[in-house]
């Protein structure tokens, strides 16, 4: 099977998956994971994929006809637990029980649905903003086959007056890298198109606030306040941002500095 993972992008990638790790995960989760999901994790244990979208018959907070899917969680037994964070996420975000979270960022979640069975789960979207839960695909194989790259062109006039064309993939690649300066440039661009790109801005800020590099999280916290001041962020997104900041000992001071009343 051809790899779905992005090359030269290790963000979100966990240690190499073993059969023992799979057994432990299934025992903890009390489910049988789809073989196709296990197979892609054996290629790479989580991270960013070559695609960014899956069709949706129901309009979502992201778009009228698709949902954003640009990464999958792996299986981790150390500090980074991947899908083994499902129980925590279910409690933290008040999500449906008996699901396994395989992708998402607090704005919306993609999950394997085990509410009515313990094997061959369907794949569902849990949209926090729209308060809706619905099926995206009857099984994970079908879900994989439906993934595609949604290309949207952006234009940016840089300081040297050279126009730059952006795509969703390019912006996501920038946000998943470790260069806080490039990330700031991308956020600057989005700030000039904030009313049109609200969903992208909100999802990106949530992801950046969970980045492994402190400087990136600091950059995200700064820009989060900028977008908050301009009234771009939804109430639920601001609540999520404040929660992430207050739970991060290295940047929690931003909460008192910018969001003291929240």
From TrEMBL:
Residues 16-146 form the Knr4/Smi1-like domain. Pfam families: SUKH_6. It comes from the Bacteria. Gene3D superfamilies: SMI1/KNR4-like (3.40.1580.10). InterPro entries: ARM-type_fold (IPR016024), Knr4/Smi1-like_dom (IPR018958), Knr4/Smi1-like_sf (IPR037883). This is Knr4/Smi1-like domain-containing protein. The lineage of its organism: Bacteria, Bacillati, Bacillota, Bacilli, Bacillales.
